[in-house]
Specification:
The chain has about 110 residues and is mainly beta. The chain has one helix at about 1-15; strands spanning about 20-25, 30-45, 50-60, 75, 80-85, 95, 100-110. The longest helix is centred in the first third of the chain and has 15 residues, at about 1-15.
Length: about 110
């Protein structure tokens, strides 16, 4: 029952709640659709100082990218460039649904196109 509900929700998300992005790993660029989100993480820097980090998240179908998201992958969206987060204590992505076929990729804005 959960698997069916998760499949249905993913269909609704992908059909009604996505925007075009350009996903880049190395020299390979892929145009895919993603939903937008945000996450907040608490972590410590090397000196033990508490940090709160807010990420720009892109929710994508796992089948749309080649393998799992990796540090330094880049996403272009709405005139901005985002990099898959590369910070100690913060995961690169998390599985976003019951069927484990959607990734929530955590990024930070690094520039403009």
């Amino acid at each position: 029952m959960f698997a069916q509900a998760s499949t249905w929700l993913e269909l609704i998300r992908s059909e009604n709640m996505t925007q075009a992005i350009l996903y880049t790993r190395g020299d390979i660029q892929t145009s895919i659709n993603a939903s937008l989100g945000r996450s907040v993480f608490s972590t410590e820097d090397a000196q033990g100082i508490a940090l709160t980090v807010q990420t720009q998240d892109f929710i994508v179908a796992a089948s749309d990218i080649n393998g799992k998201p990796q540090r330094k992958d880049k996403i272009q969206y709405n005139g901005s460039i985002y990099e898959v987060l590369d910070q100690v204590g913060i995961p690169v992505y998390r599985i976003n649904n019951y069927n484990a076929d959607t990734y929530r990729i955590h990024t930070k804005k690094v520039g403009e196109v």
